[in-house]
Amino acid sequence: MTALTAELIDRLEQVVGAAGLVRDPQDMARYLSDWRNAYRGRAALVVRPASTDEVAAVVRLCHQAGVALVPQGGNTGLCGGSIPDASGEQIVLSLTRMTRVRQVDPQNDTITVEAGVVLQQLQEAAVAAGRMFPLSLGAEGSCTVGGNLATNAGGTAVLRYGNMRELTLGLEVVLPDGQVWNGLRGLRKDNTGYDLKQLFIGSEGTLGVITAAVLKLFPAVRSTTTAWVALPSSEASIELIGIMRGLCGDRLTGFELMSRQSVEFVLRHVAGCSDPFGERHPWYVLIELGDTQPDASLNVLLESGLGEAFERGIALDAVIASSGAQVKALWTMREGISEAQNHEGPSLKHDISVPVSCIPRFIDETDRQLLDRFPGVRIVCYGHVGDGNLHYNISKPVGSEDAPFKAQHEAIMQVIYDATARFNGSISAEHGLGQAKRAAAARYKDPLELALMRSIKQTLDPAGLFNPGKVL
After folding, report:
1. Domain named FAD-binding PCMH-type: which ranges (predicted)?
2. Is residue 169 within a helix (H) or strand (E), and if so which, with residue range?
């Protein structure tokens, strides 16, 4: 890696203009740490191109000079994938000026957007066209399409619509040598060889810079119904989702599982939240059904499924939202968990997935092992039952000091990841590897799989200048 020269800075400024360079340390600060302040780095410069041609020119100049680039979108990630290292020699390549919606094609149900478009703006553009873009995340007001693609984002609607891999038809990518691959094809069938876009989705900027994408749109949802259901066990959630899928098919758009500990944190720390029930229960699910018909009989389906669940002893209590305000309140209970946990002191957060059928055994066995080895830790388990993704987070024991708890991070992580491996799961379901899980991936992924990944990296980025130190 080569240090930045005054000549290179001048040439970069000629490409992106004065507005495209950030050099002042105070102005650069927000690009150098993640939103949680969990990861911090240093950079020689922040470059903000406004077009694909500018991105390509910047990449070519850095490639020729041997300067490493760290692509960055909304910087809302959880694994440090968009943060530079501590050397101060890397350039942060921010895509936040690339905000055009290039095309909306309602007849083809596609939208073509640039990488810097904020997810919420994409959703609004879809609504304006009478359609829907279904990806929904807690950070949707600030995360960008490029980041969503680079991490293969999932969210709460994966059960019905899939993650970004399933939502993407085509990409435009600047390769590490500055060439531009134009794969912006809105085709649902293209059987002409390797599906190259899948290399870049989920690659966290290590293989190329995604500058634009053709994404799928869907008919607008005009009817929804939402329920909050108390359960006796996590196993009951697997039985209940089976009932609901059998009755509702793809009308089942959300099925979120939460432990009582998760809910208690929300009730304690998120303003305006109240327990829908008069007594505590071990587990809860949030169920949402949606339909394109304005007067679909969704409550009938929901009540039928819940009725069967009560008869079988799967459900202990339930409430169906009767207004938009109640729907929002129930979703706040689910979406407030991560924020609420932060108020309880340091927490060790893990984003794992296992086969849906294995969720109850994973939870039971891992809970038992952790509590045996680390008495008093509080386990905050919640997630997306339909795709097997659990946020399995650990908070320190009540009244304990921060430092001893943090010192147990590696040991706690090993228990959780060993359990994940036993159930043939993944140590990162939707947050990526970044720098946080790179070493763990080397331990838990198949050696041949890692070798194939390295060979792809070597082919596309032989100089190792694209987001070094991430993923591999």
Report:
1. 39-220
2. strand 168-174
Give the Cα separation of 88 and 2 in Å (integer). Answer: 11
Task: Tell me which residue of 18, 76, 136, 50 sits closest to 431, measured CA to CA.
Answer: 76
Across residues 316-331, what is the average pLDDT? Answer: 96
Secondary structure E strands in 311-373: 317-320, 347-348, 351-353
| Helix ranges, 77-144 (H) | 119-128
Using an 8 Å Cβ cutoff, are 37 and 26 in contact?
A: no
DSSP code for 18:
G
Give backbone dihedrals phi and psi of 131, rounded to 5 degrees, phi first.
-125, -175
Q: How confident is the model at residue 2 (pLDDT cuts 50, 70, 90)?
A: low
Tokens of 125: 């553009």
User: Three-state SS for 5?
Assistant: coil
391: in domain: yes
Question: Within this chain, do residues 167 and 85 fall inside the same structural domain, yes or no?
Answer: no
Report the C-alpha gap between 217 and 129 in whole angstroms: 10
Task: Show which of 219, 238, 255 is a domain's final residue.
Answer: 219
CA distance 15 to 6: 14
| 3-class DSSP assignment, residue 423 | coil
Determine the structural domain holding residue 304 and report its residue range: 223-423
Q: Is residue 469 part of a domain?
A: no
**DSSP letter, residue 188:** S
Cβ-based neighbours of 10, under 8 Å, separated by 6 or more: none
Give pLDDT tens digits for 271-314.
989 999 989 999 999 999 999 999 899 999 999 999 999 999 99
Residue 332: φ, ψ to 5°: -65, -35
Q: Which helix or strand (DSSP H or E) is residue 241 part of?
A: helix 234-248
Give the integer Cα–Cα distance in Å for 5 and 99: 30
- CA 342 to centroid of chain Cα atoms: 18
